[in-house]
Sequence to fold (581 residues):
Amino acid sequence: MAARKTILLDSVYWRGAISIVVFLALWEIGSLSKIWIKWETFEWLRNLLVAFGIKPIYLPWIGAVPAPTEVVAVWAGVLGDPGYWQSWYMSFFRVMAGFFAAMLIGIPFGLLLAVSRPAFGMGFPVFEMLRPIPPLAWVPASILFWPTQEMSIAFVTFLGAFFTIVINVVGGARSIDVRYFQAARSMGSSQSDIFWRIILPGTLPSIVVGSAVGMGITWEVVVAAEMISGGGSQIGGTSGGGLGFFIWNSYVGGSYEQIVVGMISIGIAGFISSELLRTLGKRVTPWLRLR
Amino acid sequence: MSEVNILRGAIKAGELKAVDVSKSYGAADFTKEVVSACSFTIERGKLTVMIGPSGCGKSTLIRLLAGFEKPTTGTITLDGEPVTGPARDRLVLFQETALFPWMTTYDNILYGPRARGEVTPEILELAEFLLTKVGLQDFRKKYPTQLSGGMQRRAELARAMINNPRIMILDEPFRGLDAMTKELMWEYYSALYEENRRTNFFVTTDIDEAIFLADRLLIMSNIPTQVRAVFEIDVPRPRRLADLIENDRSNQIKMEALSILHEEAMKSFSRGSKAAADFVDAYSKRVAKT
Fold:
């Protein structure tokens, strides 16, 4: 317990708390006063910008964004709405489905590319050609070739994580020090022994990094896919189409506070999933945190 | 002391012979010869040290002896059997550490027996004995990154010894350690050798290290590698670092070895430069006079 107390008093946490408080305060002031970067009060700034050829209508107006207090009030109302939680559940479900599929297929595929020269020669060119295609560019095609909306969203989510995981696994497995293989072979390791006890643990740190990056991309992709495809209405109904659809629906319905609620919810969801992944990653690579 | 006997009784010291070994790299017309018609014997139960200017092909020679690569011509035999690939009877300790970072000290030491499916109660007992021997019994559950440089080298010695190799090949194992740790490791390592008398082949660029440790000293030429000179270092064991500084015989060997090494080092330094070549020529004349 005493240890926990010192962690809470740690300067890192205080700085973090202060930065969040300052950010919220500025946002509150800016949007409540409705004048922040509203040009009447900043005549001289406007003149300056116009002199440089920048018209004020191109610039954002913080006054249009709902204040944090308003957002919290709306949020409190939304918390009791099962549709909101359904959105959470749907997005999480899609992210996890896509992410775990990407791990399940990506890790063995990456290891295969790294270990086998023929597999690399044949598999890598196609992989490298498909990799630069942004996952969102796959949305129309995947809606066409997957039987259900849900599957097409899951597929696009999968793609988001898949390429990152594979490229990290290949890179990680190939950068294992050759002396480890030499030492293992000298001591009488078989091929399968080298795979399970050298290549796999040697690649684990890269798998963890690839997964963390892949998880981030997965959240970006799932939200956009939900907006574009209308949220997979067969399952959740209009109010349960995931957080991306929640935001889009709020925008269409004109509830700007709910847009912000949706955005922050995604932030929290992303934070929770990467924190889970980080904890898991530390657990499977205990030798890395001890430097 | 019964544990020591378990270890002692099992030790098989091998004799490694290299005959006319050459190694070239590159294709067809663009080959570069790194090792050239090199012949030497690493005698049974002796500590043979090989010293040569840096970049002279010592590491290539080690890869050949360990069986990671095959010589272009010539033969390498261990107790008469030709070397065809890596095997547990010729273990290498690499420059800097090659302990597996994802395994604890204990798992690293037991790697070889586990890989070969030879984990017996005797092996586990030997692992305990070796852990104590290298002073790491309290660090068995630590990962390599948690160990100091000296501890890592000792853990690596234990990881090699548990496989009971017929020859241990050490490739500049103490490079990168600070001066204090290095000298402690010399004394530790030579005491270990004096106790078990395995065949050891130790490669270094440090003349003090070479003279302190060696029974036989091979001095290698500049690239392509050949044996330039062989010294028998007949300074009695056990040796102490302090005694060796005052020992005339060892100082004499050191001077002779150094002059050969200088000449070889200057050759690699001078390659491609007329001025440097003249300098080397002048230097060798000066050495000849004195």
About this structure: The domain at 66-284 of chain A is CATH 1.10.3720.10 (MetI-like fold).
